[in-house]
């Protein structure tokens, strides 16, 4: 069973964004799978959690930076708002990683993944990313 399916994330008008979103879904599912295994006492799985969580943070940084570069290139009016949301989530991921390093609390990390990160990704792609992709695509068309 996967936590998040590709169909739950809307396709936007720019391929590089869809690619980043597909990668985010696959990382989230990988972490969910590890946490389920860790929850049954699988120590090897538990030991891999930190690395996958770090990967999620690293990929989010590059994913968000690619969107921000595009927004700047086309002078997207809601740049600050969209970037602010990225920064908030990156700071949250750092905190979640630190908490895991301190207490390795499987249930709490599962709760964050299920209730916060998944919902945020679906909502963010449906709103800010979709609007941004539409704006960039229109800009590209107008200068082509
Ligand atoms: Fe995105
Ligand atoms: Fe975004």
Note down, in words, how this protein is organized.
The protein has 144 residues and is an all-alpha fold. The protein has one domain: Four Helix Bundle (Hemerythrin (Met), subunit A) (Up-down Bundle), CATH 1.20.120.50. Helices cover 83% and strands 0% of the residues. The protein has four helices and no strands. α1 packs antiparallel against α2. The longest helix is centred in the C-terminal third of the chain and has 38 residues. It starts with 14 loop residues before the first helix and ends with a helix. One fe (ii) ion (FE2) binds next to α1, α2 and α4.
Strand content: under 5%
CATH topology: Four Helix Bundle (Hemerythrin (Met), subunit A)
Mass-distribution shape: elongated
Q: What is bound: which ligands?
A: fe (ii) ion
Uncertain runs with pLDDT below 50, 5 residues or more?
none
The main β sheet shows up as: none
From the 3D coordinates, which CATH architecture would you assign? Up-down Bundle
What is the N-to-C succession of helices and strands? Answer: HHHH
Derived structural class = mainly alpha
Task: Give the CATH H-level superfamily.
Answer: Hemerythrin-like
| Rg, nearest Å | 16 Å
Query: What gap, in angstroms, lies between the N and C termini?
Result: 44 Å
* Integer count of domains: 1
- Helix content, binned percent: over 70%
Find the count of extended strands (DSSP E, 2+ residues). Answer: 0
Q: Figure out the total of helices.
A: 4
For this structure, what is the CATH class? Answer: Mainly Alpha
If you average the pLDDT, what whole number results?
A: 96
């Amino acid at each position: 069973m996967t936590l998040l399916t590709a169909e739950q994330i809307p396709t936007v008008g720019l391929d590089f964004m869809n690619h980043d979103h597909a990668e985010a879904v696959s990382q989230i599912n990988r972490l969910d799978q590890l946490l389920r295994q860790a929850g049954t006492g699988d120590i090897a799985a538990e030991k891999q959690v930190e690395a996958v969580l770090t990967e999620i943070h690293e990929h989010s940084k590059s994913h968000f930076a690619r969107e921000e570069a595009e927004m700047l290139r086309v002078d997207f009016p809601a740049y600050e708002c969209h970037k602010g949301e990225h920064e908030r989530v990156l700071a949250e991921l750092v905190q979640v990683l630190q908490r895991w390093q301190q207490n390795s609390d499987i249930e709490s990390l599962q709760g964050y993944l299920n209730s916060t990160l998944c919902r945020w990704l679906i909502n963010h792609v449906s709103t800010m990313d979709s609007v941004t992709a539409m704006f960039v695509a229109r800009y590209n068309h107008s200068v082509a």
